[in-house]
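Comment thread on ticket #2218

A.B. wrote:
> Attaching the input chain for the structure job we discussed in standup.
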Amino acid sequence: MIMQKLPLLVSADFQTTVDGRQISLHTLHNGDITMQVTNFGARTVSLFTPDRKGKYEDIVLGYPNIESYLHNSGERFLGCVVGRYANRIAGGKFTLNGTEYTLPLNSGGQTLHGGIKGFDSVVWNIDSLNENEITFSYTSDDGDEGFPGKLHVLMTYSLTENNEFKITYKATANKITVVNLSHHSFFNLRGEGNGSIENHVLTLNAGHITAVNEALIPTGNLMPVENTPFDFRSPHAIGERINENHEQLKFGSGYDHNWVFNSKGIDYPAATVYEPESGREMLVFTDQPGIQFYSGNHFYGMAEGKYGKRHIKRESFALETQKFPDSPNHLNFPTTTLNVGETYQQTCIYKFNKK
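C.D. wrote:
> Ran it. Output below, let me know if you need it in another format.
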């Protein structure tokens, strides 16, 4: 039972239509977690967890109403699913079965998170809903944002009694295509707007990153993290080495890179984040080969969050489980090709503790 009254968002503030489809807001609860989601971009707009003293805070960034998501002047990808292709595709081009495909460019001459109107910018169907689970679906037409094949996606958000936010994805296509889906919540374990995340202590079970160029496109090389600011195999505060003189940090203006997991399966945490003041801990489990860790380097206070505070640089982080950026253009990377008759599947779990 929740004893503390939570500042939940109001459903009426999320009622409008986009492309003739109804947007809505829904509240889920299980264990110690209360979460609100909207079917616009299948977004997590609030997520409340307790600290070690039992005090609840909303630990994801978001906006207070649907108009702010539709016409935001800050970060587009708050809390959403990103696709068809999470992360970057170089120059908006890739070749599949001898055919070159051209995608719209929306990030410094690259295609980022699916293009100009990715899965974050559409209204998803709600197939089922109960107090702790919601299932979304969406069908992306052949040629949508330049991608081949009609793609049908089924995605479920579940809150478990073990304080887990579990995401499962399934997708099929009627033509060979590429797929790379991910969840894009921005977290601050002290609560939205409650200061820097540089004191958060991060562990990543990864021995390499996919090195990038100045456009944040992978070079194709896997860079060992040993003896670099990218080595989080043992716990380090996010801000401890973020300003060191390292080329990769300069390219990302901090951390904005894909880590390559030392795979131990989904039963072993790929990432752990601990916030010492509140005692909140978040563990990330995934069956994917990589995770994009982004340290919130490009928030400039242009957008106001849910509680009247502006979204500021390095006051949030994202951990996006995924296959590698630009994989269709790198044969040595895990494939993102989805053939006819195959099913794309992925599971990601964010588990919350207090210590």
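A.B. wrote:
> Thanks. Noting for the ticket: The mean pLDDT is 97.
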